[in-house]
Design a protein that fits this description.
Oligomer: homodimer
CATH class of the largest domain in chain A: Alpha Beta
Largest interface: A-B, 32 and 34 residues
Structural class of chain A: alpha/beta
Strand order of the largest sheet of chain A: 12-11-13-1-14-15-2-16
Order of helices and strands of chain A: HEHHEHHEEHEEEEEHEHEHEHEHHEEHEH
Strand content of chain A: 15-25%
Radius of gyration of chain A: 23 Å
Shape of chain A: globular
CATH architecture of the largest domain in chain A: 3-Layer(aba) Sandwich
Helix content of chain A: 25-40%
Distance between the termini of chain A: 19 Å
Number of domains of chain A: 2
Number of strands of chain A: 16
CATH topology of the largest domain in chain A: Alkaline Phosphatase, subunit A
């Protein structure tokens, strides 16, 4: 497979436009009806696109591997998800809307309960309310000082969860979690897995001790666990890699965060699917590439709510003419991963994909669903390859070799 | 994927014969007729082979990547085209029929016009005629001396183009072009991108100065530009890799050059398709492997001439019984890359492939065209994998592991 280094040399400029629509988790398996969500939904507009375009399936990581949202989106954005790992701490930070720079090390943290002997008696501090969490974070913010020249900021999440961001020179993230993983066990501290990460472990552990000092009278939230300590991966910007002015149209923080991480411009303040499509129209002349994210297909998949997943697909289908009406040169509709309602979670099943560009082969597919994707021209490919096809169809890649 | 090192260990000898037919650029996309060139052409003989064999598609480099003829042929010959890059200078030299050895560094050169101050006022010396070019090359040949122990030979091409070949020990090719790329700019000299290539850059630049000296009164052709300076890549010979006595049956210089580069025996003096098939019959007992090249399917693709592309396919189909009549153990018909007539150039679309050997699966395909290839047993694979299948069908590969 071609790598980023070779690919970037092939990129040429053009005035073509590409729209990548990610219907999060839309891929499914048949439920008791014998049909998938896409097969149940009435989608005349996507079916028309499917008849004109080419279909197939994508694998985000590999056969049988269920991806998280981070790697599955990175792959669709053209990055090898096995080369660019996004730590949990970074994802958690992106998820609450934080922007991370190259000197930032992020951790997902839990407020927890510790007894006098250092035993963790509750890993979630009795699931304190988000309001209490916010007050504790404010108290920590007032009292925390820089540790060895590294500043620490804490940001409240829901219930007992918060994010800690360490900022300074020379931080490394080859670190083990500070989490005993079970209640009733002795507290753990961060351990470094290599020499250069030792100072970061030391700073993280000084932070835990400071938290214990500041919160000594705040039982049950009198300590914290730190997990998934990670820096944002060094990624070649999407604009530098593909020569595209890219715009992310998404309403959920984590997807906006991921887009920002790869260097897309992120539109803020969008809530509904209608908002998103209207924004696409508004921004259409300002960018070459649009990533549009449909969240609820995944949420209803996670809930096991097939009727609402089907309804979301149908609602989106009604908005498709508003997008195709803009006449983008290349349009792609796919999911980042499957979220079958019978599984109530992400799965490893390949994602249905539809690509329509100016230079299509003919295939036997005439509707956008998993059964028709089996007749598609693409067979099963890796999600990472999708951007190459979109770029080729958009006339934005030179010949390889002579 | 298995690499050359592992593959070579699996090779075993046999008296089976393999015929690989490359219909250059035959892959296409539907034009206004709704059909591809293969779908329009009447090809009863290839269709019969398709019904007996298995079909599918190949990717020369990767999804969305349009290959040049060099890498796409290397891939079909079983070499990873991303590992073995062929420089422009080498291809240009092969294209005019030169044979390059391990001590040769080749450059594609232009005669150009330079003013007193070193400004390049015409990068093509007013597109001088091929006759003038030939005389200038003869003049250079009479006057050029070895530079630091390295001999330089020049070979005329068409109009202002020629090839310069530097021959000597210790030449390296991590070099930038000596070409300002635009008229009206100051002349450029070759720059080395690493230390070991510095001497080669120096020799190339002394050559440019010598050319300027010899041609000082030959305005407009009073200097030269050097581009794509490259050595032939170090390649494990086709015979060593696959244990095959291989014969290349092609009429165009570049394909003969590529075949020679990988160590095939090249038959000279062939012009027509009929010549090629007759030569195959004549040589049939002398070799184990035959590469037969059909050029015009690509040429007519590049011209956007669908009727002539279809006619070439039909003409070749009439010659197929002459090949199958030899009863080769394995026969493969494919393209190196697609050259759709609507695109008038190479494209990234996967290549139709047909393989017929003694141990076939059954698939749904019963004619040789892109729509039938969708029903094929191979799905979409990399071109590099084809040789492995041909070798396996020919009983020329041992078991991997026990």
């Amino acid at each position: 497979m071609i790598g980023e280094k070779e690919l970037v040399k092939l990129v040429k400029s053009s005035d073509t436009k590409i729209v990548l629509i990610v219907m999060d988790g839309v891929g499914d398996i048949p439920d008791k009806s014998g049909k998938t969500a896409l097969e149940q939904a009435k989608t005349p507009n996507m079916d028309k696109l499917a008849a004109e375009g080419n279909l197939g399936f994508t694998l985000p990581i590999d056969w049988g591997i269920t991806p998280g949202s981070g790697p599955s989106h990175l792959a669709l954005f053209g990055y090898d998800p096995l080369e660019h790992e996004i730590g949990r701490g970074v994802l958690e930070a992106l998820g609450i809307g934080l922007k991370l720079g190259p000197n930032d090390l992020a951790a997902r943290a839990n407020f927890a309960t510790r007894d006098d002997k250092g035993i963790i008696t509750d890993r979630r501090a009795g699931r304190i309310s988000s309001e209490v969490n916010q007050k504790l974070c404010e108290k920590l913010s007032r009292n925390l000082e820089a540790i060895d020249g590294v500043t620490v900021k804490v940001y409240p999440g829901k219930e007992h969860r918060f994010v800690a961001v360490f900022s300074g020179e020379g931080l490394y993230d080859n670190l083990m979690d500070a989490d005993p993983e079970e209640t009733g066990k002795m507290e753990k501290f961060v351990e470094a897995l290599d020499e250069k990460s030792a100072r970061s472990a030391d700073i993280a552990n000084k932070f835990i001790k400071e938290v214990q000092q500041v919160l000594k009278d705040d039982h049950p939230a009198n300590t914290c666990l730190l997990r998934g300590l990670a820096k944002a991966p060094g990624i070649t910007g999407f604009g530098d890699l593909f020569g595209l002015r890219a715009c992310a149209i998404a309403s959920y923080p984590m997807y906006k965060g991921l887009s920002r991480l790869v260097g897309m411009e992120v539109i803020e303040g969008l809530n509904t699917l209608e908002d998103e499509v209207e924004e696409l129209k508004k921004q259409y002349n300002n960018y070459d590439f649009f990533y549009l994210h449909v969240k609820k297909t995944d949420s209803y998949g996670e809930d096991g709510n097939r009727p609402s997943k089907v309804k979301t697909i149908e609602e989106f289908d009604k908005l498709v003419p508003g997008i195709t009406g803009l006449k983008p040169d290349v349009i792609c509709i796919t999911s980042d991963h499957s979220t079958p309602t019978d599984i109530k979670g992400h799965s490893w099943h390949p994602n249905p994909i539809l690509i329509k560009g100016p230079h299509m082969r003919k295939d036997g597919a005439c509707a956008f669903d998993e059964s028709e994707c089996l007749k598609g021209a693409y067979g099963t490919m890796f999600s990472k390859d999708v951007m190459q096809i979109l770029m080729a169809q958009a006339g934005r890649l030179k010949k390889f070799g002579a």
